Amino acid sequence: MSRRRDQGGGAGLLFLLLLAVAVGGWLGHRGGWWPNPFQPFVTNGLVQRPAPAQSRLSDREAPLDLPEQSEPPVDPGPEGSPALAGISSSFPPAPIFREKQPGSGPIVTADAISTNPGTPEIKPATATRPVVPLPTTLVEIDRLIQDGEIGRAHTALSQVYFQQPVRRPEIQDRIEQTAAAVYFSPRSHVIPAYTIGPGDSLARIAPRFQVGWQYLAAVNQIDPRRIRAGQKLKVIRGPFRVIVGLDDFTLLVGAGSEYVCRFRIGIGKDNSTPLGRFRVLRKIPDPQYTDPDGRVIAGGTAENPLGQFWIDLGEGYGIHGTNEPKSIGRSESRGCVRMHNRDIERLYGMLVTGCEVVIHR
Question: What is the value of pTM for the model shown?
Answer without folding.
Answer: 0.66
